[in-house]
Amino acid sequence: MICRFTVFYTTLLLSSSFFSAYADEIANATTSINSLTVGAVTQVAPSYSGSNHSKLSMLPVIQAHHGEFFFDSVKGIGYDLQGPAGFYIEQTIGYDLGRADINSEWRDGDNQLKGLGTIKSTVNTSLTIGYQTTDWLAAEAMMTAPLTDSQGARYQTTFKGGLWQNTNNTISFEADLLFGSHTYMNTFYGVNSQQSQKSAFREYTAAGGMYAQSAYIDWTHKLTEHWGTDWSVGYTYLNDKAADSPIVNQRNDISTIFVITYTF
């Protein structure tokens, strides 16, 4: 069982890790070097990282592969190179929707954040270096940095692999450690003096470093030669660097995604 998974869980915030994890599962289910997959995804997730409110989102899915190059409606455009001895590298240029301080159907946001202002949407780049340790286990390190705004970088170490597989089904897992620079942490979890005056939140300065752990279980099912489904459940635990922020109402986040796809 080769576990070179490419899951959806980016850049849609902390649920962006979840989406990124899912995108990889769809890519893994597509064995052709040249392929086109379309579909629809339904997600139930917190309205922003640390929120005690959940929301339902529905989005289209498009994935196209041509040799080492790909386009992904979640991850962006990029290339995926296989190296010697199980090593591989992936680089993408994508788009992060940022965060609103009001309820939003299409990006992170909640009325609870009123007064904090909007975190701008950004074009970003991600670099992933991975190693396929066995047929069923891979390890990765990823860095994501914005190209159009100074929001800081985030980092992720990942172990992922296959738990069980037959002709039409694959059950896999992913476990992540999430890190953020000082700027990133204060963009998404900090409250400066100006924001504190305009909102109901006390000032808070977040330190950089590891701020969360996450884990996902994914089930990919092949319905026919072209049709398939993917169901994922994810859990994220916020460490003190993030959880101590006044905007965080709960440190335990649970998300679920269901996807139906058609591969040409």
Poorly predicted tracts of residues: 1-17
What's the story with the biggest beta sheet? 12 strands, antiparallel, barrel
Helical residues, percent: 10-25%
Shape call: globular
Class of secondary structure makeup: mainly beta
Determine and state the CATH class. Mainly Beta
The whole-angstrom Rg is 18 Å
Tally the structural domains. Answer: 1
**How large a portion of the residues is in β-strands, by DSSP E?**
over 45%
The CATH topology assignment is Porin
In DSSP terms, counting alpha (H) and pi (I) runs of 4 or more, how many helices?
Answer: 4
Number of strands: 14
Strand order across the largest sheet:
1-2-3-4-5-8-9-10-11-12-13-14
Arithmetic mean of pLDDT: 90
Terminal Cα separation, in Å?
24 Å
Order of helices and strands: HEEEEEEEEEEEHHEEHE
Second-tier CATH architecture = Beta Barrel
Kindly report the name of the CATH homologous superfamily.
Answer: monomeric porin ompg
Outline of this structure?
It is built from four helices and 14 strands.
Can you describe what's shown?
This protein has four helices and 14 strands. Mean pLDDT is 90; it is low at 1-17. Helices cover 12% and strands 52% of the residues. The chain has one domain: monomeric porin ompg (Porin, Beta Barrel). The longest helix has 16 residues, at 14-29. It starts with 13 loop residues before the first helix and ends with a strand. It is mainly β and 264 residues long. It has helices at residues 14-29, 182-188, 193-198, 240-243, and strands spanning 34-46, 54-66, 69-72, 76-82, 87-96, 99-100, 108-109, 122-134, 137-146, 154-165, 169-180, 209-222, 227-238, 252-263.
